[in-house]
Structure formats: C-alpha cells, structure tokens
Amino acid sequence: MIDNFLENATPNPASGEIFMLISPHAGYGFSGQTAAFGYKLIKNKNYKTVIIIGTSHHKVFNGAALYGGDSLVTSLGQINIDKDFLKNIVGKDPEVFLDTSAFTNEHSVEVQLPFLQKVLPNFSAAGACLPGRQGGACGGKIVPVVIGDCSLESCKKIALLFKEAIGQRKDILVVVSTDLYHGYDFKEADSVDEFTLDLIKKMDYQELYYALRYGNAQACGGFAAVVALNIAKELGYPRLEVLNHTNSAKVTGKLIQGEWTVGYASCAVFDQEGENMLNIQQRKKLLMIARESIEKYLKTGKKMEVTDADLVLNQKMGAFVTLTEHGGLRGCIGNLIGSQPLYLTVRDMAVEAAVNDPRFPALSLLELKDVQIEISVLSGLEKVFSAEKIELGKHGVLVRRGNQSGVFLPQVATETGWSKEEFLNNLCAQKAGMPAGAWKDKDTELYIFTAEVFSENPGDGSIFP
C-alpha cells in the first residue's frame, strides 16, 4: 500500500534540504496518500536521527513524554531509539520526561514508522535493525515524542531543549504527526483547515497556539506542531510549503452533511528561501524537447519518441507551452495537473499549442523558425476561499463553477497591467464563459498556483527567467 502511495504522490521537487515534515496519522486508507507527498521528497536521504513528535490520544499529562525503551518494531524491521540524543534532553526540565506508558496504544508515532522504513536507506530492513541485531550494525535511529497539554511557555521551553540538542547537526529530520479538522461538516472542514494551514505556512507558532486554544484552528497534534515550528524558527529554517491537503470526505467520496470528517495535510520545512524548481540544464532540455517535438510533428504528423532519466523531469507536474511570433501570441495550451512526467507533458503541450489552439491556424514548418517558445512549469493547485489570498504576478488562478472553468497564468497580470478585479473579471468572462463578476459568488471555486516561467532567448539559444 505504501509503495502505491509513493508511486502516485506528485510533490513539486524539493528546493532546499528538508528539516521537517508535517504528516497525518489516520488509517492509511484515509490519509496515507497525503502522507506520501512528504515522504516522497525525502526518499533516499541519509538522515541519522528522526525526531517524531506526535500527540497523546489516550494518556493525560502536561509537557512532552519521550519513549524510554530500546527500540520499536514494525513488520518492516526494528528501529533503535537514539539514547545519546535522549541524554541531551531528559532531566533538564520537569516537563520533558521519559514515560514509555504514554506510547501504549498510541498511533500518532506508530503510523509514521513504515513510511520512514520505506523511503530512508538507514531505516529500511537492510539498514535498520532486524530483531535480534543490536548496536553498531544498525542504521538510523528515532526519538519518539508525544505532547500532552502545554502552555505556550511550556511549548517554548520544550522547543529550546530540542534546539540545543540538535545544535548544528544537519542529519536530523523532525516529523510532526497531526491531523487537522475533526467534525461533522465537510464544507466547514475546508474553511477551518485553510485558516489552520495559513498559520502553519507562516510558521507563526504563537498565533497557531492561541488559535488552537480558542478553537479557531483545529489540529489534534496542534501543540506538537507549535513545538516543532518553534524549533524550526529557532534553528533558522525560514520556509514551509503545503504539499497536499484533503479530508476524509473527499477521500471516501462521502460528501454528506453530518458525516464525520477529518482533515489531512502534508507539509515540509526547508533550509533556505525558495529556489527554482529547475536548473539551467533542465530548462534547456525542456525547451529543446518542445521545439524538436513541434518540428517532428509538423514534418511527420507523429509525436516524437523521447525518454529521459532526470528525476526532476520525471515528476508529474502541470505545464503550459506558449508560442509567440514577432512579439504576438501564436498559441498557448497546457495541462494544469500533470498526469505524466514533466518532459512528456511539455512534448505534448508544445504540439497542442502549435496545431490545436482554436484561436489560431495550425503553425506551418516554415513559420517555426520565427517562433519563440515559453514554458510555464506549474505548482499544484491550492483552493482559496477569498480573492484576498491571490497575489497578482505571483499566482495563476483557476476559476470553476459547475462545468465551466478557466485559467490565467501568473504572467497575464504582469503583461496586461490589470488590477485584481480586472484580472478576475476577464478570467470569468473571457476564459470561463461566466458573467464577469462570477468569481464573487459563493458557488464559484477559486484555485491558485505558481509557475516557473522560462523561454528561449532569440539569437543564442539560452534561457532567461
């Protein structure tokens, strides 16, 4: 099941080293696919210690309980506890203590273990300890933690102890185990989770704490997230991305008012501000594929056969290909949600833009030399419930109501100089066939995404962002 989840997960490539994951902990049939988005990004990384911070569902206590046993075992093998790390934590504050009984029947840490064993070489059956093997023959180790009730000051104290124990180490991963909304209103689930995730994205652990305490935000492992975000901020990790978000109603298809619904999200914290998804060589390769695929199709009427081993270009990502001729638009077609490797999406969309854009006649082979190609590689879609979340020039927007939909890429706002209202009015009217102000209606859905845009530079074949 985990192998299938990892195969089907399509996170954007990681831009920077990952320090922390936020991962759900429901039954795998409900939240496993969402969890796989984060775990796929750390596949084959060489973390030596993983700190798993869960929440206590059964035992009531204040502070942080640490597992005091020697190891934990799943059907994939045994993982040793990092006793040396524990020595740097335990005994320094009464609210951080060993209590193995806090882990009895506690699933929040447990469900993360098989994912770690599947994606990390040090934690696999070969790299971890098999039953009966001890000591130096074993690979990666874990520090299981469950958080009980905490004041904000307690959260800060716990975070500071972990920060000091981590120090300058770069071989540590923190995994926060938490689900989000819990309730009987699947529509409310989206709005509450949006509010909670907005605070998480800002890494604003203090506001998150108070929102959890007053019930405005919901996360069963909320205080675990507060502690972990505090650790990340203290260690200077500046950026968090939401990789995937859903809920049990969507997973099961039971969009029924009064049906119990739980929210799930996968997030990652990175060690630096955002970088480009693609490097120069990858951009050049995609532009070459786009041009050569158009030429092949115009000459033969057949798709170009192409394969590529680049791991990033094999990620399933959406992309648009835009053609311009003498400064004017000559074709633009894309796929918002990648259903195949990126390089194949670019191959196919380049041909579609050349011959199947209904606004233009099919491109001729003679024209191709005068055409400049621009590629927009897209992030995943994020549903927003207010136009206030849209940043012109940064976000592309998909508008949808019933069977009607339309999309503008981020660069449309820059190229036209439109205000946000003009941007959305034209999106509805020009692209979706709706009334201009339909984006204001409660039945109209808004989705945002970002795009990495690059093109050929006429004359020298180079590229520029």
User: Architecture of the largest domain, according to CATH?
Assistant: 3-Layer(aba) Sandwich
Terminus-to-terminus distance? 40 Å
Largest beta-sheet details: 11 strands, mixed
Q: Which stretches are poorly predicted, pLDDT < 50 over at least 5 residues? A: 130-137, 458-465
Annotation, overall tally of beta strands: 20
Tally of separate domains: 3
Mean pLDDT over the full residue set: 90
Determine the fraction of residues in helical runs and give it as a percent range.
25-40%
Shape: globular
Strand content: 15-25%
Kindly name the structural category: alpha+beta
Radius of gyration, taken over Cα atoms and rounded to an integer in Å: 24 Å
Could you say what the CATH topology of the largest domain is called?
Protocatechuate 4,5-dioxygenase, Chain B
In the CATH scheme, the class of the largest domain would be Alpha Beta
The CATH homologous superfamily of the largest domain is called LigB-like
Please, could you describe this protein's structure?
The protein has 465 residues and is α+β, with helices and mostly antiparallel strands. The chain folds into 3 domains: 2-270, Protocatechuate 4,5-dioxygenase, Chain B, CATH 3.40.830.10; 280-378 and 452-464, Glycoprotein, Type 4 Pilin (2-Layer Sandwich); 382-449, Hypothetical protein ph0010, domain 2 (Dna Ligase, domain 1, 2-Layer Sandwich). 32% of the residues lie in helices and 24% in strands. The chain has 14 helices and 20 strands. The chain has helices at 2-8, 28-41, 83-87, 107-110, 113-119, 152-166, 186-201, 205-214, 222-234, 248-252, 280-300, 342-355, 411-416, 420-431, and strands spanning 18-23, 49-55, 64-66, 71-74, 77-81, 96-98, 141-147, 172-177, 182-183, 239-247, 261-270, 319-325, 328-335, 371-378, 382-384, 396-401, 404-408, 445-449, 451-456, 463-464. The strands form 3 sheets. Strands 1, 2, 3, 4, 5, 6, 7, 8, 9, 10 and 11 form an 11-stranded mixed sheet that branches. The chain has a 5-stranded antiparallel sheet with strand order 13-12-14-19-20, covered by helices on one side. A 4-stranded antiparallel sheet has the order 15-18-16-17. It is globular. The chain starts with a helix and ends with a strand.
